[in-house]
Design goal:
The complex is a heterodimer. By secondary structure, chain A is α/β, with parallel strands linked by helices. Helix content of chain A is 37%, strand content 12%. Chain A folds into 3 domains: 110 residues, no CATH class; 110 residues; 76 residues, Winged helix-like DNA-binding domain superfamily/Winged helix DNA-binding domain (Arc Repressor Mutant, subunit A, Orthogonal Bundle), CATH 1.10.10. In chain A, the strands form 3 sheets. Chain A has a 7-stranded mixed sheet with strand order 1-2-7-3-6-5-4. About 10% of the residues of chain A have low confidence. Chain B is α+β, with helices and mostly antiparallel strands. Chain B is built from 7 helices and 8 strands. The chains are: A alpha/beta, B alpha+beta.
């Protein structure tokens, strides 16, 4: 991954863009080869701040009980409906349009050199949703991931799901097609071998970046042409969040103001091209991951403080403009990062690593992948949940978006395999 | 009489102020050494991987620097620091130590060499003779090793002179682990190799950035497979080998591979 800006094309020699920006601004959605991903740089001050926080944590490990609500200030939360209007879930169909542009040459050629293309995405960065939208545009057959029993049995009947020759297909979640188990690799090796050889016809495969890092070890066929969504740096992120908060039908001006000092962070519609450092920090903290940046942004928004409260916030609250055409939304500081509960460091690390490599797992599968009995796995998952490092959704335990940065840094410090973003 | 006069000339007249200076230097040096021997390992054990080992390895070096600094500061307070005086003093001291404390002095000197040559550092896993364990403290005279059985063993540095020291990780965070499998010769070798490689690749202890190797050797009574891989941390070596062994045996048994049995001993 790079730090310098360049112009990129994918393996098919296609530039990848959609949603043209204003003037010389870069496109909002851009797909680039993995080597072209540019992690937004952290400011020197923020890097020093992070190093100091890490150093302090050596001496003062955070208490498990203090993690969940730490850092919440007293500003009231926005109503859920308003929050949903200001920060809706990203519309991945626009990204699918950009992906379409990136794959135009590949789709146009009747018999391309590479029968399959890969789209690699960081956790919560919408690779599966983008692929589903792309499949809709091309009427491609959507292939569902196999059941875990099929994976462990190496059941090749799963390949019966593939369409007949000539039909385009997509597999949005390659990360759910394997298990890090001695019997869990056969099926995915078969899949990759058949896909690369063209036996399955032409298709697009989506894969989580952590699973991709692991799969590159068990199926070491380099794919430098694999695409990924380019990082959202500060300016791009500001534009995206402004566009989200201000749909074309909206008439009110919205001011997002720093809750600590009352200064404007973002005014929508955008008044100028100047991007506040908060967006650079947010982009760097999320390593350009749009999905996670949106989660952070949503978590930080607050309503105006109640007037009866004393101090600085009261003063700023009374400064609310009389104009009904303007709305103020307060933005709190960056949230404190969750930390690992004390003790049993190795078990926690292995559990988190398994969750990251598989983009989430059912609790019933975890004991088959770790050298731990089921009751220990459950106890670890509950403790991780209390520390806001894991959550359960639709029967699958995974690392929440707001904990991904912490977990990545934690696993990297302990020499576990991490993604290349 | 002349020898006595010469000795008097070597040593300075030590007054109360000089004694105070010496006591202060010694006290400060001892305090600094105690502090760094507690603080640095305390911080180091809160870090992981290479950072931990690097920090732990600095403890004996800093201690040696403090001792040398204290020595350099004290000697001019006791004697006139001329070449003649130094040779005379150290010659006499060396002779005395050579006769009375030969082994002790040998260990001290070996200790200095061990720190300089970095034969073993804190956090390394070493084998000296039948003793295998993690180096916890490189002292002046001995190296303290904690064995997997949690025994504390003090090995004199003097053993360096005539005993090989096997260092398994040599300052690195990872060390090679080997799990052995002994199979009946009637089996498909390529399949077993692939199965064992997958066992290693799917172990949660495995360091995925290091290679996994399966070495096969035919013997008169069966086939020996050695599965070699590196765990994420050197401290996981025994759990890693156990994991490889148990899951490896399970996979091989499921594939109907027969294990070799040891040949009966010839009377």
């Amino acid at each position: 991954m790079k730090a310098k800006k360049n112009t990129h094309t994918n393996g098919a020699g296609v530039s990848s863009s959609a949603s043209k920006g204003r003037g010389s601004e870069p496109d909002l959605w851009e797909f680039v080869p993995l080597s072209g991903y540019e992690v937004p740089a952290q400011t020197t001050g923020k890097a020093a701040d992070n190093a100091w926080s890490s150093f302090k944590r050596i001496f003062m490990p955070m208490e498990e009980a203090s993690l969940s609500g730490a850092g919440e200030n007293e500003l009231p939360h926005l109503p859920q409906t308003r929050l949903q209007q200001l920060v809706p879930s990203p519309d991945w169909s626009s990204a699918a349009a950009a992906l379409d542009g990136a794959l135009q040459e590949w789709t146009a050629v009747p018999e391309p050199d590479r029968p399959v293309q890969f789209l690699i995405g960081q956790p919560y960065n919408g690779h599966a949703e983008i692929i589903r939208h792309w499949a809709g545009r091309h009427r491609a057959e959507l292939i569902a991931s196999p059941a875990y029993e099929q994976i462990l049995a190496g059941n090749l009947r799963w390949f019966d799901n593939w369409p007949s020759s000539g039909q385009l297909w997509v597999l949005p979640n390659l990360e759910h097609c394997y298990l890090r188990h001695a019997h869990g690799l056969k099926l995915i090796r078969q899949l990759l071998a058949r896909a690369e050889s063209g036996q399955l016809g032409r298709g697009l495969i989506g894969c989580d970046s952590w699973a991709w890092a692991y799969l590159q070890r068990i199926w070491p066929v380099p794919r430098p042409d694999a695409l990924t969504l380019q990082a959202f740096d500060g300016p791009r992120l500001a534009r995206f969040l402004a566009a989200m908060a201000n749909p074309p039908t909206a008439r009110r001006r919205i001011r997002f103001r720093n809750a600590a000092n009352g200064s404007d962070i973002l005014v929508v519609p955008l008044e100028n091209d100047q991007v506040r450092s908060e967006f650079h920090q947010l982009a760097a903290h999320c390593r350009g991951n749009l999905g996670i940046a949106v989660q952070y942004w949503r978590k930080r928004l607050r309503a105006a403080p109640a007037e009866e409260k004393s101090g600085k916030m009261e003063k700023t609250a009374t400064e609310q403009p009389g104009s009904p055409d303007e709305e103020w939304v307060w933005v709190t500081n960056m949230l404190p990062e969750p930390a690992l509960p004390s003790g049993e460091d190795e078990d926690f690390s292995q559990t988190l690593h398994a969750l990251m490599l598989h983009a989430g797992l059912p609790a019933s599968i975890l004991p088959q992948l770790l050298p731990l009995p089921p009751h220990r796995c459950m106890a670890l998952l509950f403790r991780l949940r209390n520390a806001v490092l894991a959550h359960s959704c639709d029967g699958r335990w995974s690392v929440p978006g707001l904990a991904c940065a912490s977990v990545r840094s934690l696993l990297r410090s302990r020499d576990y395999l991490i993604d290349s973003f | 009489m002349s020898d006595k006069m010469q000795a008097v000339q070597i040593f300075k007249k030590i007054d109360f102020a000089a004694m105070l200076d010496i006591a202060a230097i010694l006290g400060l040096a001892v305090l600094l050494i105690i502090a760094l021997q507690h603080v640095l390992p305390w911080i180091g054990n809160r870090l992981h991987g290479k950072k931990r080992l690097t920090l732990l390895a600095t403890v004996p070096i800093f201690r040696l620097i403090i001792i040398l600094a204290a020595f350099v500061m004290i000697v001019p307070l006791l004697i006139e620091p001329s070449l003649q005086n130094m040779v005379a003093l150290f010659g006499s001291v060396g002779l005395a130590i050579g006769f009375a404390l030969k082994d002790y002095a040998s260990s001290l000197i070996a200790g200095i060499i061990a720190v300089g040559e970095r034969n073993y550092r804190n956090g390394d896993w070493i084998r000296v003779g039948d003793i295998y364990g993690e180096v916890r403290h490189v002292g002046m005279r001995t190296v303290e090793v904690i064995t997997p059985e949690d025994d504390r063993v003090l090995i004199p540095h003097a053993l360096l002179w005539n005993q090989p020291v096997i260092n398994s990780n040599n300052g690195e965070a990872h060390l090679l682990c080997v799990a052995d499998f002994y199979l009946h010769p009637q089996h498909e070798g390529a399949m077993v190799r692939q199965a064992l490689e997958d066992v290693a690749m799917t172990s949660p202890y495995l360091c995925l950035d290091a290679p996994v190797i399966v070495v096969v050797k035919e013997t008169a009574w069966g086939t020996r497979y050695r599965l070699k891989a590196y765990p994420v941390s050197a401290s996981q070596q025994f759990r890693f080998i156990s994991d490889l062994t148990t899951r490896g045996r399970s996979v091989l048994r499921e594939a109907d591979i027969q294990f070799a049995t040891a040949p009966a001993a010839v009377p």
